[in-house]
């Protein structure tokens, strides 16, 4: 018995000695070879630039209220928050990996033995009954020595999953903010298109009235009247289309904000909607710490790295100790008759997988490949992030140039429309020139609104591409 205790002590000591061993490799970030600056970035900025808070980025009070509502009531955000709670519980549980388990087992059974068996004859002889009772109560402790650092790797995996979900939540909030802002801009742009259509209907109506007077005086043919009618219908067709698109956009924005379709309060025009255009871009390397989707992709590698270590540890031996103490009796009234009914057990086990059809090795190889896949995806996410910033900068730069050109064009077309009407009244221009000038002005005004919206959306895209929501805005 003394020698057995020595074996147990040696086994426990070996477990503690090997507990410092670990088969998992520590995660190190791969070299990204990032460029020094973004393409199309003509502003020299310091490397310690921080992402701009959306509350400083957005100045419109109506828009601020919509974003605040969306971040609280959006269903996707609610689901993401619940997922974070799940992962937080998983992490808390993983921290208990080194603790032993304790089980209490109470049991009672009665066995009717064969009278022709040795146990049956002895039971009938000594107990005086054709059956045998067995009452037991056992408290069993089980502890596995963490030889290969499995508990640490499980905790690292759970923590990486938790922080990865936290970054995914930030990315989701940023995406929702951008969607709300751009939907809001779309609504105001549609309002402006509706105003332009109504204005052109009035202008076309005046032109049509003038041409009808000349037709009644036999100065023009019926073709002129029909052309003027067609030009008026062109403008009128824009009104129901704009009304339809406004209703659809309002419905989509209401759902995005976590409510049922409803009217949306908004500013009068795009010029009254202000966004901070001085978004500091910094350098590409900052995206590794500012872009939540990039950080989430890296946390996925960290989790996969831990999984790889766990898959490798599964191929190595495990050592466990399972002491237990309890009571056992064949008579109910002597079940807890101490110390006579006490039963004690102590056991130590070493388990080494030998032949499992290569399943453990295959699982490890799969985990290695999975980690490599995530590493490639992480690099791709960094490349995409740099590209998105460069794209947004290019859109801002060139949409500004287009705005300058179309504003100059608007002035020319406005003068052309006015001159055409005056010349037509004086008989120095025909009706086609008047209609053409009005149509050109209509299309130009619609394009002007489209370009303004494109520029505003590009600024918002830049805000998102640079990281959007940061940790202080959670």
Automatic annotation (TrEMBL):
Keywords: Lipoprotein, Membrane, Palmitate, Transmembrane, Transmembrane beta strand. One of its GO terms (cellular component) is plasma membrane. The keyword Transmembrane applies. It is found in: Cell membrane. It holds the Pfam family OEP. It is a lipid-anchor. It comes from the Bacteria. The keyword Hydrolase does not apply. InterPro entries: MdtP/NodT-like (IPR010131), OMP_efflux (IPR003423). One of its GO terms (molecular function) is efflux transmembrane transporter activity. PROSITE patterns: PROKAR_LIPOPROTEIN (PS51257). Its main location: membrane. Belongs to the outer membrane factor (OMF) (TC 1.B.17) family. This is RND transporter. It comes from Sphingobacterium athyrii.
